[in-house]
């Protein structure tokens, strides 16, 4: 009997999701300064691909490094935050009803302040895009125009597709697991496209991708598949906010108005039983400490399938980055990457050791077959290492790095913001975001 059947059959009663420990809500000002601090870890992707391309190219000059640094600021502090603000505006009402609303860091409520908070957020989002354009004009020597245009079109092109699919796929069912639909599956696929924008930006700052189209294609597939693995694994973990533990079984409760089918459809691939002693959860049955994906999950789970695709394409990308390759070279690299990635996915616990062994296997394979530098295995090691980190988290640890960065940024920027706005305005803005009806 599945978890959903247990709930629906009445063997276990439906109960309300756990109420997370109360923590101070984000202020409106804090949100406007950094909309999604828990997503800051995604900002490592562009410098990571830039670094890999730099290693493959044998180094870059100071102008390229400066150009990359400014591009990173534009992408992660201006363009992507503006996109997040749009997402939070569209989901404002549903976010206020989320059982972990205070922990998620979305646009602060309450609902009776929707007009003022949404207006402020929309204005700041627009200002961010204006500042991105201004940087292009202020720094003409860096030739940022094409790369910033790519960022804006890529980020918001993906956002339009995402928002349309999410509107079509959610808000219709409170069943757990949520029923699968074409729109829902497409949504899981589309979410990976944003990682292509981030990653290819880093590569394009070093490599002339129009002259190396297959490198761009392989890297794009790697990034897209990794994005799908990252987001779907994170959504699966986030779905546990709607669960409680009763007699070592999970009891789920969600309503259509929560509009969380894209999370709760993933429940079908989660373990059905767990031991409360292994999650360190409180007596109320909440499972915020449950690392639901740390053990072995079905190979058919979206995050596992995507990880295998990403691992396959990562070795091909690494092989193409290190020099010309024949079709046979690419095929051997792909097979080695797929086998090693599958081993990591199936390993369950002890995955970190399997990643290390897999990286050695991949490096030796591409070297023995065609004498390719062992650097070709580095993208695979990075992708699969990131996958292991993705599936090891819980609601309690999700976004912990972003929280630490946000706290430090808040301390650093608070004096400047207070001096710029004035003490009274600062106090009003800071207090207004924390208020609750």
TrEMBL record:
The keyword Transmembrane helix applies. Keywords: Membrane, Transmembrane, Transmembrane helix. The chain crosses the membrane at residues 40-58, 64-82, 118-138, 144-162, 174-197, 217-237, 303-321, 327-346, 353-372, 378-398. This is Uncharacterized protein. The lineage of its organism: Bacteria, Bacillati, Actinomycetota, Actinomycetes, Micromonosporales.
